[in-house]
Design brief:
The protein has about 110 residues and is of the alpha+beta class. It has a single domain, classed as 2-Layer Sandwich (Nonspecific Lipid-transfer Protein, Chain A), CATH 3.30.1050.10. The protein is about 30% helix and about 25% strand. The chain is globular, with a radius of gyration of 13 Å. It starts with 10 loop residues before the first helix and ends with a helix.
Length: about 110
């Protein structure tokens, strides 16, 4: 399968590709990650055996991590046209309540 980077223009397509390219053997724990991309909410549910992604906040009050950013940054990060930096976190352009989860997410999907 593989990612189709550089050509994704819709947030839902990124999440579809993430779900299709989930690396089962690399996930060692369960986690619920809530994404806020502009006004869109997405929930990524990870376990050692599967990845389920749903539009909306399915993790109400139970998310292990919440990540918030603009559509522009999200798509740019996925497509490789933008590389998030520490300054994005410090300036609030990207908001994340558990920054270490960004590394876990990158490890599992090889994206971002």
């Amino acid at each position: 399968m593989g990612f189709h980077r550089g050509q994704v223009t819709e947030v839902k397509e990124v999440f579809k590709q993430l779900e299709e390219n989930f690396q089962v053997v690399q996930c060692q724990r369960q986690a619920l990650v809530h994404f806020i991309i502009d006004a869109e909410h997405w929930t990524v549910s990870l376990s050692p055996h599967r990845c389920a992604i749903a539009q909306g906040n399915k993790a109400v009050g139970n998310a292990d991590c919440t990540i918030e950013m603009s559509r522009e940054l999200f798509l740019g990060s996925f497509n490789g046209t933008y590389k998030p930096s520490l300054m994005d976190l410090l300036s609030g352009r990207i908001k994340v309540d558990r920054p270490e989860m960004l590394l876990v997410f990158k490890e599992l999907f090889g994206a971002f």
